[in-house]
């Protein structure tokens, strides 16, 4: 199964909660009136598109009706697909790579969202492009996270820089950057803690890691990716706000998109927080993490079965 087919299959629950309800709306109404738009608003909110995004889309649709772009309920779907695609594509830059290697990618997020697994899959993606990848076990507060990253390193053929459990995560980041420069690694991916077992503040710890990296490579980290679990819906938005303010998040990795009816959160993250979703995960396989593509997402969401 190709990745688009996996994306389409992964969005099945969201499609049932979103596109199919829109289909029911379209067949249930002869014309677009206020009652129809109220129902549409409820559908958008139930898919976790978000309050701000929903209000914007309803406003756009009202304008499209005024402009006679939409005259019947049947004409709604292509316009809605186009608007969602436009929201997701706005300001899209893709992954930022360093002009000279190594490219440093800092990965942040709460525990349980699939952060370490995401790093392994991300490393695998770059390894398949023929790049030398180095992983850094910066979640030093969980021995299991260090062990898990080591397993991923062996699996994908990437060296892992680690210290003992409880050591300074910023020191791990420092060593990783130094090792990458010495060993001519092209990609460095640094894991971080999702919470701390000490009194120190997690956000302060993440800021310290960023400072240490930037001292060694002035433009680094080149990407700070926030891993979010799509099944948490709007809770993912509050996590994104928290991490975004403290760590300079440049993009989002959305995991477990295949397990949720709340796939509309992709739109909410982009529209409400201005953060692009750069990667999506749609399964357990090593190749089931891929760069996000707005056109593919919209096509998979609105596709016929």
From TrEMBL:
Domain AAA+ ATPase, chain residue ranges per copy: 101-259
Alphabetized SMART domains for the sequence: AAA, SRP54, SRP54_N
Bilayer topology annotation: Peripheral membrane protein
A molecular function GO annotation: GTPase activity
Lineage of producing organism: Bacteria, Bacillati, Bacillota, Negativicutes, Selenomonadales
Keywords, sorted A to Z: Cell membrane, Cytoplasm, GTP-binding, Hydrolase, Membrane, Nucleotide-binding, Receptor
Gene3D superfamilies: P-loop containing nucleotide triphosphate hydrolases (3.40.50.300), Signal recognition particle SRP54, nucleotide-binding domain (1.20.120.140)
Gene: ftsY
Subcellular location: Cell membrane; Cytoplasm
Protein name: Signal recognition particle receptor FtsY
EC number: 3.6.5.4
Residues noted as binding GTP in the record, renumbered to the chain: 109-116, 191-195, 255-258
Family from the record: Belongs to the GTP-binding SRP family. FtsY subfamily.
Residue ranges of domain Signal recognition particle SRP54 helical bundle in the record: 7-88
Enzyme class of the recorded protein, top EC level: hydrolase
Domain SRP54-type proteins GTP-binding: 102-303
Annotated catalysed reactions: GTP + H2O = GDP + phosphate + H(+)
Single GO BP term: SRP-dependent cotranslational protein targeting to membrane
Primary location class: membrane
Protein's UniProt keywords contain Hydrolase: yes
Binding partners and assembly: Part of the signal recognition particle protein translocation system, which is composed of SRP and FtsY.
GO cellular component, as recorded: cytoplasm; plasma membrane
Record's function text: Involved in targeting and insertion of nascent membrane proteins into the cytoplasmic membrane. Acts as a receptor for the complex formed by the signal recognition particle (SRP) and the ribosome-nascent chain (RNC).
Keyword flag Acyltransferase: no
Source organism superkingdom: Bacteria
């Amino acid at each position: 199964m190709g990745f688009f087919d996996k994306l389409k299959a992964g969005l099945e629950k969201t499609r049932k909660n979103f596109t199919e309800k829109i289909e029911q709306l379209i067949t249930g109404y002869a014309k677009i009136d206020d009652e129809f738009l109220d129902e549409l608003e409820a559908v958008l909110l139930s898919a976790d598109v978000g309050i701000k995004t929903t209000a914007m889309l309803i406003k756009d649709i009202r304008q499209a009706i005024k402009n006679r772009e939409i005259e019947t309920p049947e004409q709604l779907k292509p316009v809605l697909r186009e608007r969602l695609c436009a929201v997701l594509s706005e300001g899209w830059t893709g992954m930022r790579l360093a002009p000279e290697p190594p490219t440093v990618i800092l990965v942040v997020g709460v525990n349980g969202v699939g952060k370490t697994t995401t790093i392994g899959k991300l490393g695998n993606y770059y390894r398949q492009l023929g790049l030398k990848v180095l992983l850094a076990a910066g979640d030093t507060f969980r021995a299991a996270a260090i062990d898990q990253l080591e397993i991923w390193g062996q699996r994908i053929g990437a060296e892992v820089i680690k210290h003992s459990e409880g050591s300074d995560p910023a020191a791990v980041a420092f060593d990783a950057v130094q090792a990458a420069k010495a060993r001519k690694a092209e990609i460095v991916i640094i894991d971080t803690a999702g919470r701390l077992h000490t009194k120190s503040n997690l956000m302060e710890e993440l800021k310290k890691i960023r400072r240490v990296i930037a001292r060694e490579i002035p433009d680094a980290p080149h990407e700070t990716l926030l891993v979010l679990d799509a099944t948490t819906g709007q809770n993912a938005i509050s996590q994104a706000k928290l991490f975004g303010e403290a760590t300079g998040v440049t993009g989002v990795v959305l995991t477990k998109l295949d397990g949720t009816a709340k796939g509309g959160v992709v739109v909410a993250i982009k529209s409400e927080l201005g953060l692009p979703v750069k990667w999506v995960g749609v399964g357990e396989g090593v190749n089931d993490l891929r760069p996000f593509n707005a056109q593919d997402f919209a096509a998979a969401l609105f596709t016929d079965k």
